[in-house]
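Changelog note: in this version the structure field was regenerated for every chain. One regenerated record is shown below for reference.
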Amino acid sequence: MTESQTHPDASSADPAQPQGIAAVSVVAGVGALLVAVLAALNEDAKATGLTAAVVGVVVGVAVAIGGIRAWLAHRSLPVGLSMVSAIVCVLAIVVAEVTGRPMTGFALLAGLVSGLLLGAVWATRSVVRRSRRPDDATA
């Protein structure tokens, strides 16, 4: 039996990733997004909490995509990009402690995790799709 017969989806899988890891990442990313939204809605100032969740998601996606682009170009992760996640984590703690809005800080952190997971899945899937397209020069 060949690999494609034992694993019907083997032709679309990325050989560098374990089977099913994208699905696990999507479930975890969506779960983190739901936690971020619920945390934001549990805050008195819902708009502030939702803004923090959105900022976390956007930063997470940007870091994941930037990191994967640097890795694919065989470059190290830029220092600024590598520090962004740490800065957002510290900012979440500061927001929670200084403003007295712990759920806003938690929404920021959960949004960051969601963005990192979902951004990594999206970027990885994009790379796999591009690598399977026939080159224009050979077509």
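Spot check on this record: The mean pLDDT is 82. Residues 102-132 form the longest helix (31 residues).
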